[in-house]
Specification:
94 residues, single chain, two-stranded antiparallel sheet, elongated, Structural Genomics Hypothetical 15.5 Kd Protein In mrcA-pckA Intergenic Region, Chain A, 31% helix
Length: 94
């Protein structure tokens, strides 16, 4: 038996326990069909864990996606120009 957040990490559903914890607290994780909001819930291999909705690499990305949806912004097929800056011989993009 493991904590739900740890089990999600073991099953490679998320990249970190912190990310799992965020999804759980947002109410987008179900265990055996029930929404769970407690990252410390004990689960085992026999439990079906589902992460519903979109997945993001960070909480900040999740917040930005929420704002984009709220204001009906669409960033698909948009290009962001990058400026080349050289620092001690290494190429760094900003």
């Amino acid at each position: 038996m493991n904590r739900l957040d740890k089990e999600m990490t073991i099953r490679k559903m998320v990249q970190s326990r912190s990310q799992a914890e965020n999804y759980i607290k947002l109410g987008v994780v179900t265990v055996d069909g029930k929404i769970i909001k407690k990252p410390s819930l004990s689960v085992g291999a026999e439990n079906k864990i589902v992460l519903a909705g979109d997945q993001y690499v960070s909480r900040a990305a999740l917040k930005l996606a929420s704002i984009a949806k709220q204001f009906n912004l669409d960033f698909r097929d948009k290009l962001i120009p990058l400026k080349k800056i050289y620092f001690e011989g290494d190429l760094t993009l900003f």
